[in-house]
Amino acid sequence: MTSTALNLGGRPTGAFAPASLGPVSVRNRFIRAGTGESMADRRGRIGPDYLRLHEDLARGGVGLAFTGHLFVHPRGRYGELQAGLHTDDAIDDFRAVTDAVHRHGGRIFAQIAHAGSQSMVRDNEPLAPSAVDNVMTGRRVRAARTDEIDEVVAAFGQAARRAVEAGFDGVHLHGANGYLISQFRSPLTNARDDEWGGTQEERDRLPLAVIRAIRAQLPADRALTMKVGVADLVDEEGGLSVDAAVAGVQSFAAAGLDGVEVSSNLMSDYVSASIRPYIAVSRVRAFTDLLLHRLHRSAEPEAYFLDFADRVRARVDTKIILVGGVRRLGTVNRLIDSGRADFVSMARPFIREPDLVNRFASGRQTTPACVSCNICLMHDEHHPLTCWRVPRVNLLRHARYRFGGGFGSKGSGRKPSAAEL
């Protein structure tokens, strides 16, 4: 007996209906959102833990997985445990991952990125469009020269080539959450007066150049999608507006995108702008998971980027991937059946339950066990990705690490300041 809804012809509907992103067919509407795995060595090379994580997701029913952000150039590395697709030496390692995913009927896209001034690598020499303090860390770097911008565009193209050779079904370009593309798109961080800045059209020139460089490397059977910031979620006025952002998305889609995942652009911090806590956590769920401080509070609402997605849907002819606090199976079905989203992407629920899609399909549950406590976020760049609530001993391990000073300057998910870098 399965909970999968069927139409009169016996075909799955809603969350379990097959669909496509460009030339790539996907068995259902569930996407594992790009989630930093923190499973690479100092060279950016991945190992068996990385392979097992993605194989478990495919075995667990996920239709499509976006990898965690893969840096395309050493200067664009976000953290020391981040994986990279910056060298041909990485191809064989990722080929093993894509082969494992395909054996279980899944699809996988390489999410490629450049951190810009949001890099947390102490000895790195990041770059940015202008010499402006990073809104999250306060880190300031010099303005990129034109030849350095050209180098970035070429690096994205070469990373896409490697993704194809490694067997990825597509490329997912990271253009959100404060990284380099977000920095170029925002008036707050791009004060250039050359061809790469000055007007919104010129501020959007970098992502357009990157999209074209990637598309030039992709054969007809591979897809290109983009995580795109639709507004600056910062305190300072004068940032990227929704209207300006969506106009840019129109041009990005026309340049060759098969779908967009809608998110934030610049962020003051990850939690309030992109990874909100305790989504859809009922009082019963809070009690079960020892969240005593949540027992007298209502559940936080789901789908917090839905308004942004609606604005994109109204003006851009492309597939919409909704990320941001989507939890209940009923919510997924409503979003798909109503046409407000073509796919939903989830990050934290799949950390705790990589087989969540199979659980939904079998009728075993309709809500994930994940409570969005964000402890996993705290351990980013400290430990390999895992849920710290199960088994329960993990909570003790977390407490010892936290209160023993293990996080150092990055306790409670805080990113290091410019002085610390």
TrEMBL record:
This is 2,4-dienoyl-CoA reductase-like NADH-dependent reductase (Old Yellow Enzyme family). Keywords: Flavoprotein, Oxidoreductase. One of its GO terms (molecular function) is FMN binding. It comes from the Bacteria. The lineage of its organism: Bacteria, Bacillati, Actinomycetota, Actinomycetes, Mycobacteriales. Residues 16-366 form the NADH:flavin oxidoreductase/NADH oxidase N-terminal domain.
